[in-house]
Backbone:
């Protein structure tokens, strides 16, 4: 479990789910910083993905959660950043595995895909599961090796 606050960000489609997640985190004592957006007004998801990823790369956070309509656009933008490993998740098994094996540091959720209860379970597993390292470390390093 990270001792830094969880970074949260969303676009307009993800805003309602991000607010549900904040309620859940308030109830369960998970500390977070919210990088917006703060309403249903239309915005561009890459702006929020880049803001959150820069905050992680700057050392303010170990883990972040991005929410858009599908989670896909956010993950595409986030995975452009060196050192960011973003996973779009809609099940709890993958939430555990992507922390244990991939050392994923950004969870992307689709507000039009998963309900608030499932999203909270996925987020909890993502936050509380530790990376295993070991045989996975070489493979995770290989993700960063590509210079094309
Ligand atoms: C916004 O309508 C939608 O395109 C966005 O939230 C996201 O799903 C993109 O991947």
Residues:
């Amino acid at each position: 479990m990270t001792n830094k606050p969880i970074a949260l960000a969303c676009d307009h489609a993800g805003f309602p789910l991000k607010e549900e997640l904040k309620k859940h985190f308030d109830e369960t004592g998970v500390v977070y910083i919210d990088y917006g957006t703060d309403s249903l007004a239309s915005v561009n998801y890459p702006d929020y993905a880049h803001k959150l990823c820069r905050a992680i790369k700057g050392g303010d956070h170990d883990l972040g959660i991005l929410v858009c309509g599908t989670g896909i656009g956010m993950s595409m933008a986030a995975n452009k950043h060196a050192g960011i490993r973003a996973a779009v998740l809609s099940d709890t098994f993958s939430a555990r595995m992507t922390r244990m094996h991939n050392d994923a540091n950004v969870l992307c959720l689709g507000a039009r895909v998963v309900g608030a209860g499932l999203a909270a379970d996925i987020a909890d597993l993502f936050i509380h599961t530790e990376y295993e390292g070991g045989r996975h470390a070489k493979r995770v390093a290989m993700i960063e090796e590509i210079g094309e």
Observations:
- The CA atoms of residues 60 and 86 lie 17 Å apart.
- Helices lie at 15-28, 45-57, 72-78, 92-100, 116-128, 135-145.
- Residues 6-146 form a domain with the Ribose 5-phosphate Isomerase B; Chain: A, fold (CATH 3.40.1400.10).
